[in-house]
Each structure stands twice: as structure tokens, then as C-alpha cells.
Write a structure and sequence with these properties.
The chain is an alpha+beta fold. The chain has 2 domains: 73 residues; 173 residues, Jelly Rolls (Sandwich), CATH 2.60.120.200. It has 2 helices and 12 strands. Strands 3, 4, 5, 6, 7, 8, 9, 10, 11 and 12 form a 10-stranded antiparallel β-sheet that branches. A two-stranded antiparallel ribbon has the order 1-2. The protein is elongated. The N terminus and C terminus are likely disordered.
């Protein structure tokens, strides 16, 4: 063999050097293929499907003992809070006749003043696309304009407008409030803890009586199958990167 830098390289050493160079080339090629596969998967793989998860289903069988719910009456002066529905005015949307939450002009003491009466859900764990649905109804007497806001707050703390800074829906007010059970639905993306609030408000002299029933919150979580398929593909590429060098090493 020809000397290299004053050293003599044996045939075995030369073969080892050539093999190492060949393996490095193979590894670079596989790394390139792996990157291309990832880009292709991101571009062409379908968006992972989502499974619906019901995180809240409240029918208001007993308003006084709602688990995790919060009542907050900021009316001036404060009167009554939210209470069990009165089946003599109208029956519930679902279940026993009085199984709905009700609120009225007496939220302000003696029905005189500014009403600002809140009913807040428990803290819910949300993960992506979130859908809130519920039913509302009113006594429907001419001359009154009941008003209900539906708000959302991220996190588990705070009870004011600074926390519930996302207004999802406004029902009534300038428009007529439903005088029969009507469903409302709103969807948005939320991640982490969150709460919803039903806020009854206005001058007590313009308000009468509304009911709330069948409050449901549906969340969504990614299906694991799509991610498992991608991981399986990457695992195959990793195995190939180990298999090719071993094959050529044995031939040497």
C-alpha cells in the first residue's frame, strides 16, 4: 500500500475507512428522506378527527344545590338570585315541570333598581373546539324587554367583566326575548380551564321573568390514531437507518 502521511495503510484499514464514508452517505440520505417524509405527512395527511366529549349537562332539577355553580347578584340594590322554575308560569323544556333555572325583575330589591344577576358554571376542562348549547324562555308579557348575556372566561378565577371578557351571545334587549323554549348554540376554540356565565341585566322596570334549561357543553379531543400512524412511520425510518449500515458492514 502507498504511505499516507508517513504511515502505511493496510487493505483492512482502507476497507474500514471506505465503509465508514459509505455509512455516513447512507445516513445523510436517510435523514433527507425522513425530513421529506415529515413535510409530506404535514402537507397531505388529513386533519386529525376529534371525538366529542360532554363536559357539562345541567337540567336544573335543584337550583339551590347546583354542584360547582356560582350565583352572584350585583344588582343595585340586590334582591333575589336565580331560583327554581315556576311551573305555573311555564313548564321546563325537559324533565319535571319546574326543573329549570329562573330569574326575574325581583333581582333588584322590591323590583326597583338596576338588575345585574349572574349564574356561573363550574370550571370546565376544555380542549379545542367547544360548543355551548342551552334553552331559554320568558313569560312573554307585552311591554317588557328581558335581556340575557352569555359570557366566557378563561381560567378558574375572577367573577367580573374583566374575567368574563368574551361576550358569546346577547338574547333579548332590543330584540324580542323568546316566549317559548328556544335553543341557542355557539361554538369556539378554547384550551384549558374555562367557565360560562349567564348574566340577566337591565332596569328592573323593563324586566319580567326568564327561564334557562338543558345547558350542555361539548368539547373535543384529537383522536390518537393519526398520531400513532405518524410515529409508526418515523419508527420505520429509524429502523431502516440502522439496518442499512449493518448489511454493508457484514459484507465487508
Amino acid at each position: 500500500m502507498k504511505p499516507t502521511n508517513g504511515l502505511v495503510v493496510s487493505q483492512r484499514e482502507r476497507t474500514t475507512i471506505l465503509l465508514a464514508q459509505f455509512e455516513r452517505g447512507i445516513m445523510k440520505r436517510l435523514a433527507s428522506l425522513c425530513g421529506a417524509a415529515l413535510v409530506s405527512a404535514a402537507a397531505w395527511a388529513p386533519v386529525p378527527s376529534h371525538a366529542a366529549v360532554q363536559v357539562l349537562n345541567e337540567g336544573f332539577n335543584n337550583v339551590s344545590s347546583l354542584s360547582g355553580w356560582t350565583q352572584l347578584n350585583r344588582s343595585v340594590p340586590p334582591g333575589t338570585g336565580w331560583f327554581q322554575g315556576n311551573s305555573g308560569i311555564f313548564s321546563a323544556q325537559n324533565g319535571p315541570a319546574n326543573s329549570y333555572a329562573a330569574v326575574n325583575f325581583l333581582s333588584a330589591d322590591n323590583g326597583i333598581g338596576a338588575v345585574d344577576n349572574w349564574l356561573i358554571t363550574p370550571t370546565l376542562a376544555l380542549g379545542g373546539l367547544t360548543t355551548l348549547s342551552f334553552y331559554v324562555n320568558s313569560a312573554g308579557t307585552s311591554g317588557f324587554s328581558d335581556l340575557l348575556e352569555v359570557r366566557f372566561a378563561s381560567g378558574s378565577s375572577g367573577t367580573g367583566l374583566d374575567a368574563f371578557d368574551t361576550l358569546l351571545l346577547t338574547i333579548g334587549g332590543e330584540a324580542d326575548f323568546p316566549s317559548q323554549w328556544s335553543q341557542f348554540t355557539t361554538s369556539f376554540t378554547a384550551a384549558g380551564d374555562g367557565r360560562f356565565a349567564f348574566r340577566y341585566l337591565g332596569d328592573a322596570s323593563t324586566l319580567e321573568y326568564v327561564g334557562l334549561d338543558s345547558v350542555k357543553v361539548i368539547g373535543a379531543v384529537p383522536e390518537p390514531s393519526a398520531y400513532l400512524m405518524l410515529l409508526a412511520g418515523l419508527g420505520g425510518l429509524a429502523a431502516a437507518s440502522q439496518r442499512y449500515p449493518r448489511r454493508y458492514r457484514k459484507q465487508a
